[in-house]
Design a protein that fits this description.
6-stranded mixed β-sheet; single chain; Hypothetical Protein Aq_1857, Chain: A; 3-stranded mixed β-sheet; mainly beta; 2 iron, 2 sulfur cluster binding; 109 residues; 4 iron, 4 sulfur cluster binding
């Protein structure tokens, strides 16, 4: 069985969470993996209340959580925030994904 490494969160992602005031509302950025999407799996990224069994990644009072089911799919992934001409969003750079769709929210392993 391969060892599961926790995902990493960039300073830019934590800074964006601070800008939107997630911690002030008692919320964290939840990053999960669901079945579906055009490539087999899709990311579900939203503000949510942390649960007892979540992996908690925090810095400067801001928090990102990953549930135990999603964690193996996100092993050693990087959670980042990007601003481009087409919009601003949280993105996942996942070394476990063998392919992904054009929008970046769906992937296969």
């Amino acid at each position: 069985m391969e060892m599961t490494l926790p995902p990493k969160v960039t300073d830019r992602a934590f800074a964006r969470l601070a800008e939107i005031g997630a911690s002030g509302q008692g919320q964290a950025l939840r990053v999960a993996v669901d079945g579906g999407g055009c490539s087999g799996f899709q990311y579900d990224i939203k503000l949510d209340i942390p649960a007892d069994d979540d992996l908690i990644l925090s810095k400067d009072g801001e928090t990102v959580v990953v549930d135990s089911v999603s964690l193996p799919f996100l092993s050693d992934a990087v959670i980042d925030f990007t601003e481009e001409l087409i919009g601003a969003r949280f993105v996942i750079k996942n070394p476990n994904a063998t392919s992904s769709c054009g929008c970046g929210t769906s992937f296969s392993m």
